[in-house]
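Why does this matter for the project? Reviewers at the last site visit asked to see concrete outputs rather than summary tables. In response, this paragraph embeds two records directly. Each consists of the residue sequence and, immediately after it, the corresponding structure tokens. Nothing has been edited or filtered.
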Amino acid sequence: METVYLETTVISLLVGDVSRDLVTAANQQATRDWWDTARDKYELLASELVIQEASAGDPEAARKRLEILKTLTLLETTEDALALARDLVTSGAVPPQAAEDALHIAIAVTNGIDYLATWNL
């Protein structure tokens, strides 16, 4: 079965209250539609970094995000992932202000994950 690493934005759009912003609402619906089919087609994974990010903000929203994350397998953040994330930033492949995004990428890559799902545009 192919694997998908779910970055925090996917979880946030999945369980968030429907937005009044039409683009965000469409992204939420697309995420929910994908979720309904993906759970049976892929092994869905996250990381401690996703848990950390999902825990922030509004307590009720964080609770909803963490409930979903309980159903996923968590990947470890290895030294290899930390080194790759640093390399992604220092090489300019990922801008310094997106260092956490570089770590998401690195965790997925170093664990041999097939796909990384994110709404970071």
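We now turn to the second protein, recorded in exactly the same manner.
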Amino acid sequence: MNDLLFRNGTVFDGHRFLPAGTVVRVRGGRITGVGPAESLGPLGSAEPVDLDGGTLLPGFIDAHAHPVFAGHQLRHCDLNAAS
């Protein structure tokens, strides 16, 4: 399994934009290194992914919920079994 090396773009780590020239190394779907390319050790078989000036962002999880609405629904009488 080859590593991926995301380069040539802006990297946002979820808190701040990292310095220009930051690359991100990924192996098996997990980030294994972030920093200047020379700090990540031998890149050998890493497959370069050119971000072409774009921005690399962390994964987003949609934690959107309406707990008040759900609680309101539970307060009603459930007559589904009566039909």
